[in-house]
Design brief:
The protein has 276 residues and is an alpha/beta fold. The chain is built from twelve helices and five strands.
Length: 276
């Protein structure tokens, strides 16, 4: 690990835990700028579904890697590492403090420890895997490579498929070569009590529906199509099913609340790895 003159601040926590607010508080206190470490807020037009912070809510704090890419394109962990490294150097060069905030923990891992060793794409295998259900794929990863399964977003089919490509080729997803983080980082963990977090998830989701989430998903769907919509996260996938008459409107809130709580539990598990 390098000795950084201005250590990074990493604001992390499960969905609805208050990361954006905490990052702004720290930026104002430490003369910092925020780098979003979020796999979806990078996309233009995914505003309500990703709880993207507004210009007014930023309180004048510069935010980076928000609204930079058309959602028809794919932004990878490698893209994040490339862009974040440039931003970190630029922010430090101006005497400011880089503050990384977001819930995509795989991106944090990639930035600090490097990307895991890959394997060439196998299009025939990929086609077969993508035809299988998400629970079936996740169960396969858990059976073959429990360590990698514990670090995967169980709702991100694209990354689960990629993990299985590597597992079938190498037996498991190789550990990263780097064992010490590339950057010195101070963690600011937002992790409310279990019951408080569940209430926040439901309240925030209800607010999203009230603010027009269904119409946003309708617009995004028209722009990207159903296949890509399913890759843009739970809110877009589940509401997409409603728009295709595959589920009722009354099922949306309870289904999404349950699935987002499951995802939040997965994020909380990742936080425990910081202490190991």
């Amino acid at each position: 690990m390098t000795t950084d003159p201005l250590p990074l601040i990493g604001v992390i926590g499960p969905t609805a835990s208050g990361k954006s607010t905490k990052a702004i508080e720290l930026a104002l206190e430490l003369d910092g700028e925020v780098i979003s470490v979020d796999s979806r807020q990078v996309y233009i037009g995914l505003d309500i579904g990703t709880e993207k912070i507004s210009k007014e809510e930023m309180l004048g704090v510069p935010h980076h890697l928000i609204d930079v890419l058309d959602p028809r394109e794919v932004y990878s962990a490698g893209d994040l590492v490339r862009d974040a490294e440039k931003l970190i150097a630029d922010i430090r060069a101006r005497g400011k403090r880089p503050i990384l905030a977001g819930g995509t923990h795989f991106y944090f891992d990639a930035l600090l420890y490097g990307l895991p060793e890959g394997t060439p794409r196998n299009e025939e295998l990929r086609k077969d895997l993508e035809a299988r259900s998400l629970p079936e794929l996740m169960e396969e990863v858990e059976r073959l490579d429990p360590r990698r399964a514990s670090r995967l977003d169980p709702q991100n089919k694209r990354r689960i498929v990629r993990a299985l490509e590597i597992i079938y080729d190498k037996g498991s997803v190789p550990e990263r070569e780097r064992t010490e983080p590339k950057h010195e980082i101070i963690w600011e963990i937002c992790n409310p009590e279990r019951d408080v977090l569940r209430e926040r998830i439901v309240a925030r989701l209800q607010s999203a529906f009230d603010r027009g989430l269904i119409e946003e998903v309708r617009t995004v769907r028209a722009h990207v199509g159903d296949e890509r919509l399913n890759e843009l996260g739970l809110e877009y996938k589940i509401i997409g099913e409603y728009l295709r008459d595959e589920r009722s409107e009354t099922s949306l809130l309870p289904s999404l609340s349950s699935k987002l709580w499951h995802y939040a539990r997965h994020q909380r598990n990742w936080l425990r790895t910081l202490a190991t």
